[in-house]
């Protein structure tokens, strides 16, 4: 590798790292408790006890659950129905309009067997941390900004790997040069920990970036495949009397009986068209449970229009969300994710320390140090 090439990669690594480090530190610190969000929420706010019934007790019709939700939130319309993965609970989200902001929505919970209203979910400390992690309480464009920081982080990883090659040519892997300056010792640790966390940091950085583009990715899906489904049939105008939601779920499940319902989106919301109940089914295994299959039922007539796999970019988005937090491999994987997160915090902090303790001199001199001493920070 020529000196000019090293200089270019050094500058890329330097500036991408400097620009994104503060934000990446915030994301890593807030992301650490989010890895265990289910466990922490369960500890801080234990689930309400449910009446004990025989295991084969059937669930009520979703139409009955919706009727009870209408009495609880009069004047509002249903937006989503979702299903608890571990307990027989049905969640109903209502709002004044299909495009209502989350702050204007109401979140209701019902025992799926009896229709009894359960205590509603009350956002707590984990919801606060998640909001800070996703958009810093600044909205959509802040979320996109953090996505750009994720791209810069990935560029810093790639450039760091390129610069690590001449370093490894002079020293054995894992060498920590002792008896020299404190800064050089931190440099060796920074390089070693950075290369050890390379794969994990790349996965988390890329999946985190994908997660920030949920809104535009979903908009692309709606303007393409979903628009084609909506335009494929003649539509009966939607009125106050609509088709059975339970019948819509049953119709879609008959097309994929091995799958389970994940959620149902009502007409006009983000994950549906203006005319359809969008019924999303999930696989039965831990991995396939993140792969959703949507079915679209005309909300006016109850006609099943399509059950089609989501395009690759939507599937990638759905897989990125649990992979980002290690939420599909049980507690053991979460612990591994947490350990890598802590090491990445050390890498980011040591990189910032190395820059603050940098020696003066033009970039050519700094590149010479990279070549002669293996320095890449």
Description:
Among the domains are: 3-39 and 138-211 and 328-373; 46-121, no CATH class. It is built from twelve helices and eight strands. With 377 residues, the chain is α+β, with helices and mostly antiparallel strands. Helix 1 crosses helix 5 (140-170). An eight-stranded antiparallel beta sheet has the order 4-3-2-1-5-6-7-8, with helices on one face.
SSE layout and pairings?
Layout (H helix, E strand, L loop, with lengths): L2 H33 L1 H8 L17 H11 L4 E7 L5 E7 L10 E6 L5 E2 L6 H11 L4 H31 L11 H15 L1 H15 L1 H18 L13 H11 L4 E6 L10 E7 L9 E7 L5 E4 L4 H14 L4 H27 L6 H11 L4
Antiparallel strand pairs: 1-2, 1-5, 2-3, 3-4, 5-6, 6-7, 7-8
Helix pairs in contact: 1-4, 1-5, 1-11, 1-12, 5-7, 6-11, 7-10
Poorly predicted regions are: 373-377
If you compute it from the alpha carbons, what radius of gyration comes out, rounded to the nearest whole angstrom?
Answer: 25 Å
Largest beta sheet, briefly? 8 strands, antiparallel
Determine the mean pLDDT: 85
Keywords:
54% helix, 377 residues, disordered C terminus, elongated, alpha+beta, single chain, 8-stranded antiparallel beta sheet
Give a quick rundown of the structure.
Helices cover about 55% and strands about 10% of the residues. The protein has about 375 residues and is an alpha+beta fold.
